[in-house]
Amino acid sequence: MEKFLQEIVLQIIHLLSKTGVSLSTARTFSEIVVYLLWIAFSYLGYYLTWQLIKSLVIPILQKSKNKFDDLLIRHRFFRRLSFLTPTLLIYYYSAAILSHLSGLSNFIINLSNAFFVYIVILLLDSILSTINDFYERYDFSKDHPIKGLIQIIKIIIYIFGGLFIIATFLHRDLNSLLISLGTLSAILMLIFKDPILGFVGGLQLIFNKMVSIGDWVSVPKYGADGTVLEINLTTVKIQNWDKTISTVPTYSLISDSFQNWKGMEESGGRRIKRHINLDMDSVHFINEDELKKFHKIQILQPYIKSKEIEIERYNKENHIDPSIVVNGRRMTNLGVFRAYLKAYLANRNDIHKKMTFLVRHLQPSEKGIPIEIYVFTKTIEWAEYENIQADIFDHILAVVPEFNLKVYQFPKSIDFK
């Protein structure tokens, strides 16, 4: 091929010399013309290579059961591979065609080297992207994502590829170039601070199993509350419940606090922790009429009977004078109300009995005495959980007056009237 190209150059020189053009001008002109034709031929080589791959190789790969080659096609591996044909044609035959234009020949060869490195980088990029997508097809990838690792490898490849291209044009060895860049390490650290912190944070998140793809997380500092879609080198992508997307810096999940609801989802129960404030002025010892009324509440009957026996025995053993209200032990409407809430919740089929189950007092305040419900539902599904919680507190608010208690709330205009 070299002899054929050189022969064409000589033929053009011979034709030009007959017209009276000087030998040096004829040689320069002929080499440039042949080289431009060679560039056109190289592009034709790219076109034919791509058409051959597209019409023969890709259809065969698409019919195979292996999904890896399909991902290679998606990430344009074969399209980028076809660019090697013109690059290699230009690289190997530039010196033969431009034999008397050594400066231009060397420049084009260096340019071909740079483009060859660039194509190799793109091919490696396609392979790494394919590996990541292929890996994410498996369920364990959610707990151990490698996207951050893939991204840091890509950055290293692009950096070294860029340095190699610079070394090619400067005619310097890559090692000496790296040594000279050592003085710029502080600047490079500053430029790549976020990727480095993100990479470190991503590794800690993955290996400590702090968060996985698909987890429900809440990051109050960034207003993010939803499902983790992606863990990248520098950011974690979270789809909020309103379908918006929040991007949170990866390292912030290490340096700042966040809440992962995965434990709740795996436990099979979701916590209800809510209280109502009761007016303390409505709390009193129950009288005989109230006791008769409470005896008729079916789920309270076991409690009332056992409590009556317990109190009567205690007062007899301690010779209590019942004529004074504060002597001995007596039942209060608030205590009976708490017992009712326990029985009511225990009779519900949607409440976990094997998980924490509390009906308790909180610290009284100027807003009354809080009675807190601390139980777990048997479902973790959000809408169903909210329905259960609403049903419980609808019932509680409606039943409070039956125990001669009042819910505390700030004065309304009707109170002043």
General description of the model:
This protein is an alpha+beta fold and 417 residues long. It is 58% helix and 11% strand. The chain has 17 helices and eight strands. It has helices spanning 2-18, 23-63, 68-74, 77-81, 84-97, 102-135, 147-170, 174-180, 185-191, 193-207, 252-255, 262-267, 288-295, 301-317, 333-346, 382-399, 413-416, and strands at 216-219, 224-231, 235-240, 245-249, 259-260, 270-278, 358-361, 369-377. It has a five-stranded antiparallel sheet, with no helix packed on it. The protein has a three-stranded antiparallel sheet with strand order 6-8-7. The termini are far apart.
For the structure shown, list the relevant keywords:
417 residues; alpha+beta; 3 domains; 5-stranded antiparallel β-sheet; 11% strand; rod-shaped
Order of helices and strands: HHHHHHHHHHEEEEHEHEHHHEEHH
Cα gyration radius (Å) = 40 Å
> In percent terms, what proportion of residues is strand?
5-15%
Which structural class best describes the helix and strand composition?
alpha+beta
Helical coverage, percent range: 55-70%
Number of strands: 8
Task: Please give the largest β-sheet.
Answer: 5 strands, antiparallel
Widest sheet, order of strands: 4-3-2-1-5
**Low-confidence runs of at least 5 consecutive residues:** none
| Mean pLDDT metric | 80
- By DSSP (H or I, 4+ residues per run), the number of helices equals 17
Summarize the structure.
This protein is an alpha+beta fold. The chain has helices at residues 2-18, 23-63, 68-74, 77-81, 84-97, 102-135, 147-170, 174-180, 185-191, 193-207, 252-255, 262-267, 288-295, 301-317, 333-346, 382-399, 413-416, and strands at 216-219, 224-231, 235-240, 245-249, 259-260, 270-278, 358-361, 369-377.
